[in-house]
Amino acid sequence: MRRLPPLNALRIFEVAARTGSYAEAGAELGLTHGAVSRQIAALEGWLGQRLFVKDGRRMVATPMARIFAAEVELSFDRLAVAAEACGRPDARRILRVSAPTSFAMRWLIPRLDRYHAGHPQVEVAVTTVSTVFEELRGGVDVAIRRGAAREHAWPQHRVVPVLEDVDTLIMSPALFARRPILKPADIEGHTLLASETRAGDWTDWLEAAGLQHLAGRPRRIFDHFFVTRQAVEDGLGIGIGPLPMLEIDVAGGRLMTPLPEIRVPRTGYVALIPRQADAGNLVAGFVDWLAGEARGPG
């Protein structure tokens, strides 16, 4: 019978050695700094030697620990490949995706039927975050966040561009019928609806429209964009919205873009894939599907 070290401690050790930080390991695994420290101490006790030494405020892997970590990583890679090869072909796989609330509600979830049609063995579990800049936590396979595709911004993740973002003026068809907006100056007298999570949207759009003199006008502000979008649909005023995420509302006649030629480019959305992602390409395939959906037909 094999004498194996505690496997959970091994997993945590491998991440701590790879990231070079207890704190970063905890962030990747969804654990506290103390929990990481306790598991490392348990593994050190089992091995009978230190794996990390204190260097200033950081814990640094010893030379022997770095060699051991490389072997552990290879072993986990082989285990992942073996599990994928031996898994039941008809077994459902769960893919955990974290995304900002508006992105999930208005863009991702309405498209998931198309993904499931081509991947019936995969169940996509979506969790939402309240802001596009919310910190990354462990426990998800793919995280969608607003940001540029720069690796150094998320050093523990591969970064893949998914969706470009552009703002434009939105309003309800019913409000347009009562008080049409045919040119930029027609917005005067309308109630301006804004979102705390998309600060600056009105200022930038007014500048693009040549209406900087209206930048100081009072606005009715809501905490999240999905609340603002609902208020716009209900005809309570006009707003600025991200066009890619509102295509289903425009197509469904719930919203309209009275001045579609006036657009303000925004930082788009990227998919963040943990560097230790699955060996079976499930995650990479899902991200490729996301990018394809963003490009549209053809």
Automatic annotation (TrEMBL):
Domain of life: Bacteria
Pfam family name, one: HTH_1
Coiled-coil intervals: none
Transmembrane segments: none
Keywords: DNA-binding, Transcription, Transcription regulation
InterPro entries, per database record: LysR-type_TF_proteobact-type, LysR_HTH_N, LysR_subst-bd, WH-like_DNA-bd_sf, WH_DNA-bd_sf
Domain HTH lysR-type: 5-62
Family recorded in the similarity comment: Belongs to the LysR transcriptional regulatory family.
Protein name, UniProt field: LysR family transcriptional regulator
Organism: Azospirillum endophyticum
